[in-house]
Every structure is written in structure tokens, then in C-alpha cells.
Amino acid sequence: xxxxxxxxxxxxxxxxxxxxxxxxxxxxxxxxxxxxxxxxxxxxxxxxxxxxxxxxxxxxxxxxxxxxxxx
Length: 71
Prior knowledge:
The protein is mainly α. The protein has helices at about 5, 10-35, 40-70.
């Protein structure tokens, strides 16, 4: 998912997305320990997607703080 698509989501949706991605990452890590993954690069993609979501969340928090200071 692109950052522009993530920016359109609400904070709650982003938090839910991060939780889902982290859950999937944990499951894949456990699977990697017991068997060979068909696409090991998927782990990297998940970590990057989590980072993208967290970055957008941080941007939203900072814009809210700036908005409350200016009001």
C-alpha cells in the first residue's frame, strides 16, 4: 500500500493495519523457523509496510499538535 493511500486512512484504521501486519510478521517468522518460506522477501515487505504506517501515524500526530498550538 502506498503512503498516499495510508494518509487517507484514520488513526484507528492505521493502528488496526499495524496490528494486522505485526501479527502476520510474527506468523511468518515462526513459519520460517520450522520450514522454508516460498517468498522470504515478503518479510522485508511487511517490515517496510509497518514502517510506512508508523511514519504516517507520526505525521498525523505532529499535524494535530501543530493544529492545537495554532488554535
